[in-house]
Amino acid sequence: MAYIASPVDVTKGSIMVDGSQTTAPGVLSAGSVKFADKSLLMVDASAVMGNKAAITGVKSANVADASKLYLDNAKKGETYKILAGSTQGWKAENIISNNKLLTFEIKAATGNEYDVITDSKSVKDAYGDQLIAGDVYDAALATGGVATDFVNRASDDHYNADDAAKISALNSAVALNELAGVEYGAYAVNNLLTNAIADHMSLANERTHDKDIWAKYIHSKETIDGLAIASMGGQYDSTYNGVIVGADLYKKGKAVIGAAFSYVDGDTDGNTIAARTENDAKYYGGSIYGGIQDNTSLLMGDISYLHGENDIDQYNSGMNLTADVKTDVFSLGIRAEKSLRAGIGKFVPYTGIRYMHLSTGDYTNSLGMHYNTDDINLWLLSVGIKYSADVKNGNWTIRPLAEVGYIWNLGDRDSTQTVSINGISNGFCYDVTDTGSYIARLAVEAEKGSITYGLGYGYQKGDSVKDNQWMASVNWKF
Question: Are 88 and 112 in contact (CB under 8 A)?
Answer without folding.
Answer: no
